[in-house]
């Protein structure tokens, strides 16, 4: 049987039972035409007892890196070995529903080549220090209007089912950041892909994320705040520097988010005399995310689209001098930069019209919804392992209070020593 999808599981010193659960969920897939690449990022602890019985399967390959390189470089090593049209990342402490690959492959077969990523909805499972499941919550993904919408959503997508040719066309996972791809690798690759491709969202439960005391992100709040700034500034610069971000930081949690994007004033041409009166565009001074969620249709990752309202009462005035946008401060590795204040926006009167920068609106990344009905046999909530909330070990929710999952960006586990 020819395989259509490769599952990549990068890991470093996985906790007892976690890697076994992840691998077992792949073997429990309804579809069997998959490959599995286990990428050991130079672990120092013995994990083989968790997966030894699966290594004899011809579809499974274990790759050991000679030195600890981090999540992005581990994934890039896996990318070199992929020989299927699609691949999907599975973090070593998460797992799939039995129908996950069936839904994604069926959906991908109907999509055009410019769709690089297919994602769905996610269930969070919280565990206490003893490994008991104490609560679950369901969060719904959504569509993104364009790359600016994705930046303002302050989130990621799950699962990340990639078209292999698209990932290779952007050079794989970037490693040119201060942490060499060890932090927020998911958001960086998604932003690169969104520069050239579109994403597609499936309204089905497809991924289960485990929240526990040893989560990579629980130890990484400061670095994630730093990388939120770095990643956002890097993406905006690659897009032509048309906007400056304004960041907000939660005092209680330390999480940093992109609050809004402010258009940067364009350079105006010199005019030796007043121009004939005409309607001139007025630039909005800022773009701010609305507070209520809304689904928006898919479109190519381009600049915002809506027209800007023209000035209602133009008057003749002398020409404005040339203005130069304020340069973005150079990034200092491993130290967060201060939030950028809005630039003054000139009112344009009696000057040649300039291209308008249009508003971009953000929508919260997830909306809590009831668990939907499943389309495939054995895909709904049940009592067997890996079938959703149930009563078998590691399958059902608990009842302890204050145990729900978080929604902060870049919540996948790390694989390197430097991420602890």
CATH topology name of the domain at 5-229 and 364-419, in short, is Spore Coat Polysaccharide Biosynthesis Protein SpsA, Chain A
Encode the helix/strand succession as letters: EHEHEHEEHEEHEHHEHEEEE
Mean pLDDT: 76
Structural class: alpha/beta
Largest sheet: 10 strands, mixed
> How much of the polypeptide forms β-strand, as a percent range?
15-25%
The coarse overall form would be globular
CATH class of the domain at 5-229 and 364-419: Alpha Beta
Annotated CATH homologous superfamily of the domain at 5-229 and 364-419? Spore Coat Polysaccharide Biosynthesis Protein SpsA, Chain A
CATH architecture identity of the domain at 5-229 and 364-419: Alpha-Beta Complex
Helical amount: 10-25%
Q: How far is the N terminus from the C terminus?
A: 41 Å
Report what the structure shows:
The chain is an alpha/beta fold. The radius of gyration is 24 Å and the shape is globular. The strands form two sheets. Strands 1, 2, 3, 4, 5, 6, 7, 8, 9 and 13 form a ten-stranded mixed sheet that branches. It has helices at 18-27, 48-51, 71-81, 100-108, 147-153, 164-169, 185-194, 221-238; strands at 5-11, 34-40, 60-64, 86-89, 95-96, 115-127, 133-140, 160-163, 198-211, 243-249, 256-263, 287-288, 367-368. It has eight helices and 13 strands. It has a domain at 5-229 and 364-419: Spore Coat Polysaccharide Biosynthesis Protein SpsA, Chain A. The model is unreliable at 272-287 and 289-420 (pLDDT under 50). The longest helix is centred in the middle third of the chain and has 18 residues, at 221-238. Residues 407-420 have a biased composition (Gly residues). Belongs to the glycosyltransferase 2 family.
């Amino acid at each position: 049987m020819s395989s259509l999808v490769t599952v990549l599981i990068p890991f470093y010193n996985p906790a007892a039972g976690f890697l076994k659960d992840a691998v077992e969920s792949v073997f429990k897939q309804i579809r069997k035409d998959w490959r599995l690449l286990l990428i050991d990022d130079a672990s120092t602890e013995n994990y083989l007892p968790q997966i030894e019985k699966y290594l004899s399967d011809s579809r499974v390959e274990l790759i050991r890196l000679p030195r600890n390189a981090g999540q992005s470089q581990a994934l890039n090593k896996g990318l070199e070995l992929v020989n299927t049209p699609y691949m999907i990342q599975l973090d070593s402490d998460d797992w799939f529903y039995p129908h996950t690959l069936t839904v994604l492959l069926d959906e991908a077969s109907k999509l055009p080549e410019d769709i690089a990523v297919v994602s769905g909805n996610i269930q969070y499972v919280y565990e206490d220090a003893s490994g008991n499941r104490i609560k679950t919550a369901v969060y719904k993904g959504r569509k993104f209007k364009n790359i600016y919408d994705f930046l303002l959503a302050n989130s990621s997508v799950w699962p990340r089912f990639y078209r292999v040719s698209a990932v290779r066309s952007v050079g794989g996972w970037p490693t040119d950041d201060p942490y060499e791809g060890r932090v927020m690798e998911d958001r960086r690759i998604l932003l690169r892909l969104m520069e050239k491709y579109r994403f597609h969202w499936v309204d089905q439960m497809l991924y289960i994320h485990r929240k526990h005391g040893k989560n990579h992100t629980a130890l990484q709040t400061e670095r994630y705040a730093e990388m939120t700034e770095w990643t956002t500034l890097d993406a905006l610069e690659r897009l032509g520097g048309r906007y400056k971000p304004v960041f907000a930081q939660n005092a209680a949690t330390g999480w940093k988010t992109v609050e809004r994007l402010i258009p940067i004033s364009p350079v105006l041409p010199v005019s030796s005399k007043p121009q004939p009166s005409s309607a001139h565009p007025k630039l909005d001074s800022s773009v701010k995310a609305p507070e209520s969620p809304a689904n928006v249709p898919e479109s190519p990752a381009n600049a915002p689209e809506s027209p800007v309202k023209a000035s209602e009462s133009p008057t003749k005035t002398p020409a404005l001098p040339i203005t130069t946008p304020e340069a973005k401060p150079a990034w200092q590795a491993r130290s967060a930069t201060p939030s950028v204040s809005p630039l003054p926006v000139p009112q344009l009167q009696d000057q040649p019209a300039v291209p308008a920068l249009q508003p971009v609106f953000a929508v919260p990344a997830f909306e809590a919804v009831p668990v939907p009905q499943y389309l495939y046999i054995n895909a709904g909530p049940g009592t067997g392992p890996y079938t959703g909330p149930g009563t078998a070990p590691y399958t059902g929710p608990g009842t302890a209070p204050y145990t729900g999952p978080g929604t902060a960006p870049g919540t996948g586990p790390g694989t390197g020593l430097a991420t602890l």
